[in-house]
Amino acid sequence: MTDSRPTGPDTTTPPEPPGARDGAQLPQGPPAPDHETGTGGAGGKPASGAGRPPGTHPHPHTGLHAHLVVDRPAFRLDVTLTAAPGDVVALLGPNGAGKTTALRALAGLTPLTEGHLRLDGTPLEHTPPESRPVGVVFQDYLLFPHLSALDNVAFGPRCRGAGKAGARAEAAAWLDRMGLAGHATARPRHLSGGQAQRVALARALATRPRLLLLDEPLAALDARTRLEVRAQLRRHLAEFEAVAVLVTHDPLDAMVLADRLVVVEHGRIVQEGAPSDIARRPRTDYIARLVGLNLYRGRAERHTVRLDPGPSITTTEELSGPVFVAFPPSAVTLFRDRPTGASARNLWRCEVAGLETHGDRIRAALTGELALAADLTTVAAAELGLHPGAPVWATVKATQTHAYPA
Amino acid sequence: MTPLDRPGAATGPHTGRPRRGRAGAGGRRGVPLPLLLPGILALVFLLLPLLALLLRTPWSTLPDQLTSAEVWQALRLSLLSATAATAVSVVLGVPLAWLLARTEFPGRGLVRALVTLPLVLPPVVGGVALLLALGRNGVIGKWLDAWFGITLPFTTAGVVIAEAFVAMPFLVISVEGTLRAADPRYEEAAATLGASRFTAFRRVTLPLIAPGVAAGAVLAWARALGEFGATITFAGNFPGRTQTMPLAVYLALQNDPDAAIALSLVLLAVSIAVLAGLRDRWMTTS
To answer: What are the start and end residues of every segment in region (Disordered) (chain B) (predicted)?
Structure first.
């Protein structure tokens, strides 16, 4: 992220340096190497120009300031996004949460009902998609099937005024940078999923966007390719000097690729912050499930948290007022009979609702006094004789729980 | 503002695509007679006239018939005018198909219905309507004559116009169906790369729908080649100028039935050639 040099393909001898036509390609601001990129990092501090009224002198490279409102029948998207150049922001959320709608609104493919969108100080909400300095990597890439990989990448520079030879040279440099120099003449249908993904990324980057949008960039790949492509994508995103926003429903993709997560549910932001913070302190059931935690909401009184419906949980943190309590399934111990030792104060009588293998362990879904997920070894599951409907006692040590203000 | 808000996008992928591929898959559990007998009857009904044409062909005099100047004149005129009418249909019809498939405007449903009207309109009525519009005293023809000295009826250009009038709807409907089946998100992708809607159409959509345009063009060409009613009404029947093959066949049938058969055979051959050319695209695609 600190290496701000890759505004252009760092190839050996690009026939024409892609930076040469920058002025013609971007409606605003010189896209010269950007040295403000150091802000990109956990927490994504809002850029300095956040409060400036529109219409005043736009500063170059102040990043993204967007308030996106899109009304649909029975659905309303209302999210606020800010990001500094160099930031990689992940919109994380379940299907139908409005992530893709937000992405389309940023690209200009879906009109805003209300709100605003400023990129590097330039208002874009009324700018048609073809005039926005925004690049998009679509979920299924949408590479033009009738064009070679090279011509797919050259399409953007061509549309932005480059000559045919110049656009192709630029495209070749981008493909080379993506490690695809050998596939320049290939039609998209002859590319593997990972290669197509990189061509799509090169195609989006070749327009030198000030905002790069990626819609489920890894969803179309099989598990093995995904691992490799994720690592490459992470590298390319880290090199990208402007704002990148990616949409995903996969928490791993989001946490690996992004500096900052914005969790969207039902068209609204429910939590945002650094990946580590979100993983440690989820605030909705959806996030808790994603990061694999049992999450409860209650009212704390010193070390005891009284859950809204349900029993109390004893924690080590001393808090008061509304709080969340979270603990991992692996912190739960199950007993067939009521344990006699008084060490675990968090003891609940439950019933097995379901069992499933989870890696090399068994995950038991429990109902009863407290609904929770518990991980145990296969051996332990066999010794306990677990089966759906079996009664069990579940305990969690106070030290394994984590309480934080709601 | 965006190429998005079109209801066609939602229903797109399934309209306009020919459904086929079920034949033979349904098993062979005995065919009910009430279906089998009419079916065979229909087949005979469709094939018998063609068979009769072949049976009654004067094969011995055929070479002479086919090499006569009149036949070549009519065939040449037919091929030329049908091709010109197809060209007109493509140049004007593809944009119309795009407007119908990709834009939203009031009365679009009505426009689509009007476009398909010539498909069901008796061609003679079409010819009369063309005369009233473009004839020497027609609504527009009057001005064409007065200002530019252009008269269209009873000229080869008139033949092309009559044929295009009848054939263009085939192309428009065919291309519109292909456009609706084509993924409009490619155009969105092009837009995000900086392409205007026209550039996206020219460089992305048109190449993608080229097979559909070709199929529509062949359909339009075949329809134009066989055009009779509108042509004879609007353009008349002047050998060498407006007498196309179908008109020549009809005329020959009065005086020289053998010539009519020979001419018909030529048109049949052309039709079979067209069908064979389309077979790969239409008969085997799924």
So the answer is: 1-26
